[in-house]
Amino acid sequence: MSPSRERESAAGAPHPPLEKYYPGEAQRRAFVTALFDRTARHYDGITRLMSLGSGSWYRRDALRRMGLARGNVHLLDVAVGTGQVARAARDILGETGRVTGVDLSMGMLSEARRHLACALVQGVAEKLPFADACADFVTMGYALRHVTDLASTFREYLRVLKPGGTLLILEMTRPPADTAAYRIMRFYLESVVPRMARLGPGGAETRTLMEYCWDTVNECVAPATIIETLAESGFSAPRRNVVLHVFSEYVATKPRD
Ligand SMILES: C[S@@+](CC[C@H](N)C(=O)[O-])C[C@H]1O[C@@H](n2cnc3c(N)ncnc32)[C@H](O)[C@@H]1O
Hints:
Blueprint: H1 3-10, H2 28-50, H3 55-66, E1 74-78, H4 84-93, E2 98-103, H5 106-115, E3 119-122, E4 135-141, H6 150-160, E5 161-172, H7 180-199, H8 203-219, H9 223-232, E6 236-243, E7 247-253
Parallel strand pairs: 1-2, 1-4, 2-3, 4-5
Antiparallel strand pairs: 5-7, 6-7
Helix pairs in contact: 2-5, 2-8, 3-4, 6-9, 7-8
């Protein structure tokens, strides 16, 4: 990312507007909603292929390492999509806890309803339709790049968490541009995955989804900006675990007082 782009994004969005897809910041949310609505039916298929089948296992593992275990807890999964994080949470909690999913795309929520028996609500991360201090855990999988503003999103997460509650954000992060890990990631996400998507049942729409995925990863603000914004929003001890050079797990806690 160029220094000027980093400055633009620092205003609050996770990446600058991507004119290749929409004209300016004001159109970002409408573009994202329409893109996920149109590709919802093919999302699980293409992400299974993209992660070579490891996505469910990895989400479950990350939730366990964050401290999720059987018990009387409420987990709120923001940007639930087709329910991949929420299903992993259900697997861990069984009947002992409660999972609620929220997403802006009705298309993704309809897909989630096909496989997930939990409360599913339409809403946005930046203004969650939930009461203060209602959740023990808040999770967000691979959607931070799509919100309009990091600080208002994090303030909402803090508001809905109970004191002592935990936030887990899973994301893909591009390694430094001069590394082999960056070149491999770029080749895979920019060239291989969109071509695989094009050949699948979703055709050109799914290809656009995957191209957009890479462009947002490539243009996203640095992890340090995310950590700093979490701290400024009131979270204590925000930290980032990195898995296989590209998977970021941001974990933070709501202070007890
Ligand atoms: C890449 S999918 C991730 C779905 C799921 N969390 C997973 O791990 O597979 C991104 C999801 O974020 C949702 N989304 C994007 N912006 C959002 C926002 N501001 N608030 C709530 N959901 C949002 C999209 O509709 C989409 O379902």
